[in-house]
Amino acid sequence: MGTYSNGERAAGGPGIFSLEGKVALVTGGSRGLGRGIALALARAGADVAVASRNARALEGVAREIRGLGRRGIAVTADVAQVKEVRKMVAEALSAFGRLDILVDAAGVNQRTPSLEVTEALWHFIVDINLKGTFFACQAAAEAMREGGGGSIINIASLLSGVGIPTLAPYAASKAGVVGLTRVLAAEWGPHGIRVNCIAPGYFRTDMTRALFEDPDWYARLRRQVPLGREGFPEDLAGVAVFLASDASAYLTGQVIYVDGGFISSRES
Questions:
Q1: pTM of this prediction?
Q2: Domain residue spans in the chain?
Q3: Quick one: which of 239, 134, 139, 29 has its CA closest to 48?
Q4: Which residue of the set 170, 218, 250, 257 is catalytic?
Q5: What is the DSSP string of the chain?
Q6: Cα–Cα distances in angstroms (integers) from residue 54 to residues 17, 27, 65, 74, 235, in the given order
Q7: Annotated catalytic residue 170
């Protein structure tokens, strides 16, 4: 996937961003950022399997994908369970016959002062965000290696690069996703498998609803973001399609912050 014999198409051919003929699997695809990315990939031409623990919401997203003229299926899976991760990938392969793109968007969070974090809470967050990401990458890479390559897109966070109180397990898991991305990119590049990472800033999703309902917090956020607003799931569409497509054929092991400039502003 994405190998060129000359520079013509790599320099910008008409189909460079097209995902026609590609198959994608998106974890956390029932809502929020995962749903938004799944629909963006479908609009770019991919057939898409969406996975999460919420079967009813998943089927709704799969219907939306089919409404765009692409094949779409719902796969119920808990990515914290390795057996379910392997079954998830097997179901996508059974339905579509190949796997070209994996997006690891499944994630959870809970704001808790670090002195109050329990072992159970730590495992709940880290097992989904980091363990689930690794084993989904592993299972997908096995299929991609046999298929000649592919693109894996992991979802990290603004918290991979900055420290914000009460988010220790989440920040640790997302920093781990960045390290994991770089290791897998180095290890799997010879197999034609690219591994990159999107690190979103503050986006309006179900996970962040309570924050955005606080007017004082929201006003502070808008002052901190150079672009002056929060992110919405559609703000990830372009970068996700770019990383999934041949437009990024020579890009791997990278972290792209999609945060309205928040992290750059804090570093200045």
A1: 0.92
A2: 23-267
A3: 29
A4: 170
A5: ----SSSTTTTT-TTTT--TT-EEEEETTTSHHHHHHHHHHHHTT-EEEEEES-HHHHHHHHHHHHHTTS-EEEEE--TTSHHHHHHHHHHHHHHHS---EEEE---------GGG--HHHHHHHHIIIIIHHHHHHHHHHHHHHHHT-EEEEEE--GGGTS--TT-HHHHHHHHHHHHHHHHHHHHHGGGTEEEEEEEE-SB-SGGGHHHHT-HHHHHHHHHHSTTSS-B-GGGGHHHHHHHHSGGGTT--S-EEEESTTHHHHHH-
A6: 31, 11, 17, 10, 24
A7: yes
């690219």: which residue's tokens?
194
Fold assignment, 23-267? Rossmann fold (3.40.50)
With CA atoms as reference, report the closest residue to 40 among 233, 247, 251, 254. 233
* Strands of 150-155's sheet in order across: 72-76, 47-52, 23-27, 101-104, 150-155, 193-200, 255-258
Determine the residue type at 223: R
Tally of CA atoms within 13 A in the half-sphere of 220 that contains its CB: 6
Per-residue pLDDT tens digits of the chain, which is 268 residues long: 444 434 444 444 558 999 999 999 999 999 999 999 999 999 999 999 999 999 999 999 999 999 999 999 999 999 999 999 999 999 999 999 999 999 999 999 999 999 999 999 999 999 999 999 999 999 999 999 999 999 999 999 998 888 889 999 999 999 999 999 999 999 999 999 999 999 999 998 877 778 888 888 789 889 889 999 999 999 999 999 999 999 999 999 999 999 999 988 775 4
